[in-house]
Amino acid sequence: MMTFGFSTLIDILSWAVVLTLGLKVVATLVLLSVNKEIWDRPGWGAALWWATKITPVIAVPCVLWIALLQGLTDLVWICLAMMLFVVIAVPLKIRQRRNRIARRMWTWPHEVTRRQR
Q: Rounded to two decimals, what is the model's pTM?
């Protein structure tokens, strides 16, 4: 299915898939080793969190394109199902993160005023 030269479109797409999914694995492993609050702060934690969400959006269409170029109809259907999952799951996770940040912003000042009393 995937080839790893540098001369054809399938080669370039194969490298794109491998590099993006490799980035996702590394980012996921780093994020799992730190506290969840670091994910939401500006800086490297937020960048790695976004990398885990954006890479499937790049990799799945590349795999779909490879399958189309090679005429692998079974793989095309699998890739379409994966793309449907990504299109649904990524916005949900982004919304969860925004809600988590908003909750943290609204609860923190109230806790400080209670402690000061």
A: 0.77
